[in-house]
Structures are given as structure tokens and as C-alpha cells.
Amino acid sequence: MKKIIITSLCVLACFASAIAQIGYRQDDITYSLNTDESGKNYAIVVFNTLTTRCDVTIPETITYEGTDYVVTEIGNDAFRENDLDYHLQSISLPNTIQRIGDNAFRNCRKLGLNGTVILPSALTHIGKAAFKLTGITAIKIPGTVREISEEAFKECYELKSLEIGYGTTTIGANAFNFCLHLSSAIIPSTVETIGNFAFLNCQALKSLNLENVTHIGTQSLKLTALSKVTFSDKLVFIGDQALYGCKFETISLPNSLTTICDRALANNELLTEIYIPENATIMGKEVFSGCSKLTRVAAPVRFKPNYSHWFASEFNGMCWYDDDASISEDGIIYSGDYSRLIFVPSAYAGNLDIPTSTTSIGAYAAYQCKGISQINLPTSLTEIEPYAFYYAKGIHTADLPNIKHIGQYAFYRSSLQYLNMNENIDSIGSHAFYGLRDFIFPLGVSADIMESAFCQPYKFACSNTFDYKKAIEDTDSWGDTTPYLPIFYSETDIVENGMIFNSSKSVIKYASYATVPTEYSIPASVTEIGDNAFYYCSKLSTLTISEGVKSIGNKAFNSCMIKTLHIPASITSIGSDAFDLYASYPNSPSIYYNSTVPMSGDKNIFKASDYNEAILYIPKGTSGKFLITSPWMYFRNIQEIDFAGFDGVESDECGDAPVEYYNLQGIRVENPESGLYIRHQGNKSTKVYIP
Fold first, then answer.
1. Does 458 map to a domain?
2. Which candidate in 142, 408, 607, 629 could, as Cys together with 429 as Cys, close a disulfide (CB 3.0–4.6 Å)?
């Protein structure tokens, strides 16, 4: 062991607080041996003369002339290396170390590459740039270090994992600046301040929990990959460019926040919406500059006169709320009296039951809210402003008897399936109902108040004087054109539950997609089904056409994807493209035609694939007629069955008798799948369809 006593005063000059100082070198490490006024002996690492790459172990004590000196500190610049000498590869520090000085390991680029640097549990101070430009890959800082000094770990390019212990309160300026590979950072609830530039350019850092932080400094999290941050309900300050260039899609700011400085959230290119808390008093310039996907900002109305400087260009997606607004825990904002719905967070995933006191829906209120389970609109609504339900999901029915104004794009490509309104509406903006499948225009309403409000509905009903080409665009945004399919009706017709009948209810003229269920039976009073009546009622799977129906119009059930079809003997005519059957492997669509005298019609009543895939069930002994009658002759699979008893017979109570199922050939089926069966229980037999 090499030991050298150093008496150079220049080495010892910085330890003037000690009443006795001795320079001492051991294993190429130079120590200052000190005795303080209380007689306590301690040693400080002050210099090294390492000439080769090596692993260093700092002892707990240095013994000199029979006296032990406890090693308590790594002094300023003690192991600092120049750009060419990368000698120190690892270091083992004793738990007696309390302080690591400024630049202590600066530029030790090999340090930590081959193993973790473990900081002593008694450590209370890490100096400026102490580990700057080192090669450490992981670090755990004990909570006894109350403040992590400026640049302490700046430009540690290989650092991937950081854990700060409970007790640390401040992360200093530039502390982890340019730690490019830092992907995991555990910050305790004791940290209150994130200093300027603290995590600037930590490009792999995606999430942080800042549950007690009150102050986020200038550019402190700039150009990170942050997409998720938990902010403290004590946060009051976000500095200039603090969250510049992050990866937030949404961000939840606490109500405690009062100050958001210049460009604080600028260039968040994925950010789509944000809520400015009610206690905010200062908003800087260009806070949202470069947020190219930002569509909605909910903010206190007091900012309205000067909000334009928040953005680099014109922005229209503001949702303003007053000081007395009602804000739920889920972030849904109403006016104080609940007469107006102002804002629904796009992340909201529950049911949205808008109260009956609400008369207006604000612009962008539920814009792109795609996770809502169900939206229930009250009939009290008189106004729905532009973009209110743009691309919103969960809204299926809009019964709006009192509505006066509907803004442009209000329901654009929403999940709305059924709309009802009266003829007294005053205005409907362009593309308000783009994507609505079908609609019954009220008699008496003018197309002049709704120019281009609808686009390419599959069908619609209106009066024969309604200028539907003004109200409806036939060309979509891709340039595709859909032919108009108007169904005309008059004051003598009956409109109820999305259906239009003639005055005697013997003719079905129109059936809305939203009101036709999966299983549907034509009412007994009906004798005729008009052209396009059920066109694109694609939920319809099982259709029973009642005995008495004589005529079915062109495309009456086209695009309905029917799996099971019951045709009565009363049918005398069926129009072209009337049916569209749906084959779901391994189950074939089924047609039950209970007639001994088949109706004759064109081959195009069904589509070509229907003839190949469907099974046509006919009464026993009638094949000879069906095989020479169009269109039935074109079905590849025709089966004769006994229709007798299919209406069900019942003699005694079933009680608790077991249920048995039989197919139409009378063979018992243990586990019936989708299709038609005979259900037998006790003395009761009924024909049933299992979907």
C-alpha cells in the first residue's frame, strides 16, 4: 500500500474550517485529514492520480499515525477527468459519505457502465455537476438528499433508471438535462419543485407521477416523450415551455393551478383537448402554439377577450364556462343552472344523461367523445351548437320536438341512428347530420333552412314538394355519389315510431333503421310493402311476413342481411332486388315459403349468392311446382318439410316438464344452434327460432 503525506498548503486551503489538516495519499487517492473544533476526525477525498482504468473502493476510515479519520466527503473535482482520460470504471462508496462535491465525478464516462453506482444511505448533499457526463445507467438517490443540485446528472446519456427516495424536496436546474435514454423515473411525494431544465431532452421518458409538486420550472420537461403525468392538486405554476414538445393526447390540470407561462404546452402535436382550471389567472403567449391536433379547449370565460394569443393561428374550438359553472368529478361542465351543457371530456366512458333542465348544447361540447356508453338527450333542447356531437359515440336517438337551431356539423359522423324533430325548426347548419342512415323530413319544413345538412342517407321520406336536393348532398368527401332514394308521404299517412303507413295501415311506406328490431313481424293489417320501405334496415335478421301481405315492392328489404325469412301463401308479387339474405358460415340463410302454389316472379328478386347459399323450405309434395317456377327454381338447396303444427298446439299446463328440441325433420337435437326448431315441453309443442 502506497502512502504519501502531502503538506502542500494549496491542496488544503479549501478546508479552513478544520483546525488541523493533513494531506495524505493512499492507493493513488489523496485525502485531506481533518480535525474540527469538537475534536472529531474526518477525511475528505480531494484528488486522485489514477493512470489506468480501474475500480476504486473508498474506505470508511483512514488510519494515520494511529488515529482513525472517518471518510465523510468526496470533494469538489476529486475524480473529474478530462476528455481523454477515462480511468474510473466503478467506485464503491462507504455509508459514512455524507457529501459529494461539485464536479466530483464529472466526465468519468466509463463510470457505471458495467455496474450500478450505489450512493450511501447517509448522503445528504450531491454537488453541482457531480455526476455530469458519467456513464451511469441506473441511480437511486436516498431521501436524505433534500436537494439534487444543478446539473448533478446532466448529460448522463446512458442513464435509464432513476429512483429518488422519500424526503427529497427539490430537483435542481438541469439536474437530468439531456439524459437521452432515461425511461423510468420514480419521484416521491415529498418533491415540491422541479427546477428549470431539470428533465429537458429526456427523450425516452414517457410518464411521471408529480403527486406533490407545486412548481414546474422553465423547460423542465421540454422535449420529453411524456404522454401521462399525474399532477398534484397543489400545483400552482407551470413555467415557460415546461411541457413543450411532449406527447400528450389529453392532459388533466388541477384546479389549484394559477399560472401557465409562455409556450408551456406548445408543440404537443398529439394533444387533442385540454381543460384550463377555474382558478387560473395567468395564461402566457402561444401556450398552445404548434398543437396541430388540438380541437377543444375548455376555459374560464374571463379569458375570452384576450385568448387569441394562446394560439399561433385562429382557433375555434373554445368551450367557455362561467365562474358559477358546475363541474363534476368526471370533468363534465354545465352552466350553474344546468341549462347548458358546455364540455364533456373525450375520455369520459360512462352514460351521459343530460338533465331535462338543459335547453342548449354548447359548441364542441361532446366533440369526438368516442367512449361514452350512451347519451340521452332531453326533449327540452331548443339549440344544439356547431360540432356539439361531432364524431360522438353512444348517441343513438334524438327526439327533439322543441328544437329551433342545430349548428353545422353538430352530429357529423356520430352514432346517431334515429332523429325526430318538428316542422317549426328555424335552422340546421351544413353537414349537421352527415352520416345519418335515414330520416323522415317533417311535412311543412323547408329545405331552405337546412342546405346540405344531410349527406348520402341510404333513404329518406319527405313530401313530394320538398326540395330534397338542396337539403341532401349526394356526394361524399371522397367524391363518391349515391343516388337519392326518396319515399314520398302526405298528411293522410300515419307516422309513428319511425314507420310510415297509409291511412288504413294496409301499406308500409317507410321503416327507419333504428326502429326495426332484429326480429320483426309485419303487422296483420298490412297487405302491401312499398318500394325501399325497409331498405338498409341492416339489424333485421329474422323477418316474418304475415299472411295477408300480397305485394312487396322493389328493394323493399334490400341490404337487410336477413338470416331467416318467412313468406306467406298470400304473396302475389315481389319486386326486383326485394331481398338481401346473409350467410354466416356454417349457417345458411333460411327461407320458409308455406304455399302449395308458388308465386311467379323475376330471378332478380334475390341476389345470385342467395340462390347458392340459402335453403328454401317448401311444403311436402310441392317440389314439382317450385322446380319449374321462377325465382324458386334457381335455389340449389330446396327441402320439403311438414308445416303442419308449426303454429303451436297446447293442451295441458307444462309445469316443470323438461324441454326438448327437434329439427324440422323430427330428429331430436341436444344442443340447438341458430335456426328454426320444434320446442316440446310437456304436452305443448311450438315452433321457435333460436338466434
1. no
2. 408
pLDDT tens per residue, range 570-581: 999 999 999 989
Q: Considering the domain boundaries, does residue 354 fall inside one? A: no
- What CATH number should be reported for the domain holding residue 517? 3.80.10.10
Query: On the CB side of 120, how many CA atoms lie within 13 Å of its CA?
Result: 23
Fill in the DSSP letter of residue 449.
Answer: G
Output the pLDDT for position 582: 85
> What's the sign of the alpha-carbon dihedral 653, 657, 663, 668?
negative
Considering the domain architecture, whether residues 554 and 659 belong to the same structural domain is answered as no
Neighbours of 483 (CB within 10 A): 6
Rounded distance, CA 659 to CA 643, Å?
21
Q: To the nearest whole number, what is the mean pLDDT of the chain?
A: 91
- Residue spans of alpha helices (H) in 498-574: none
Q: 404-410: which pairs have CB atoms within 8 A and are 24 or more residues apart?
A: 406/432, 406/453, 407/363, 407/432, 408/432, 409/434, 410/384, 410/385, 410/386
Residue 172 to residues 99, 106, 168, 217, 346: CA-CA distances in angstroms?
A: 16, 17, 11, 10, 36
The residues, ordered by sequence, that sit 6+ positions from 430 with a Cβ below 8 Å of its Cβ are 408, 409, 451, 452, 453
Please give the single-letter amino acid code of residue 468.
Y
Q: Is 629 exposed, middle or buried (0-12, 13-18, 19+ CB in 10 A)?
A: middle
Q: Who has greater pLDDT, 26 or 689?
A: 26
> Residue 473: inside a domain, yes or no?
no
Contacts of 343 (CB under 8 A, 6+ apart): 275, 296, 298, 319, 321, 331, 332, 333, 362, 364, 365
Dihedral sign of CA atoms 53, 174, 192, 126 in order: positive
Q: Are residues 658 and 616 in the same domain?
A: no
Decide if 521 contacts 505 (C-beta within 8 A): no
Give me the half-sphere count of Cα atoms (radius 13 Å) on the Cβ side of residue 262.
1
587: containing domain: 494-641
Same domain, 518 and 635: yes
Do both 596 and 625 map to the same domain? yes
Residues 592 and 681 occupy one common structural domain: no
Spatial separation of the C-alpha atoms in residues 691 and 607, rounded to whole Å: 23
The last residue of one of the domains, among 620, 641, 662, is 641
Q: Give the C-alpha separation, 279 to 212, whole Å.
A: 18
| 30-88 per-position pLDDT tens digit | 999 999 999 999 999 999 988 887 889 999 999 999 999 999 999 999 999 866 566 78
Please say if the pLDDT value at position 255 is more than 80: yes
Tally of domains within the chain: 2
Give dist(CA 224, CA 199) in Å, integer. Answer: 8
C-alpha cell at 410: 353538430
Question: Among residues 641, 666, 681, which one ends one of the domains?
Answer: 641
- Alpha-carbon distance of 253 to 238, in angstroms, equals 10
Residue among 193, 245, 184 nearest 219 (CA): 245
Distance CA 391, CA 296 (A): 13
**Predicted pLDDT of residue 182:** 97
Instruction: Establish how many alpha carbons lie within 13 A of residue 544's alpha carbon, considering only the half-sphere containing its beta carbon.
Output: 13
Asked if 605 and 657 sit in the same domain, the reply is no
Asked if 588 and 614 count as a contact pair (C-beta separation under 8 A), the reply is yes
Residue 398 inside a domain? The answer is no
pLDDT tens, residue by residue, 157-172 = 999 999 999 999 999 9
Same domain, 513 and 626: yes
CA contacts within 13 A on the Cβ side of 153: 33
Cell 414546474 sits at which residue? 216
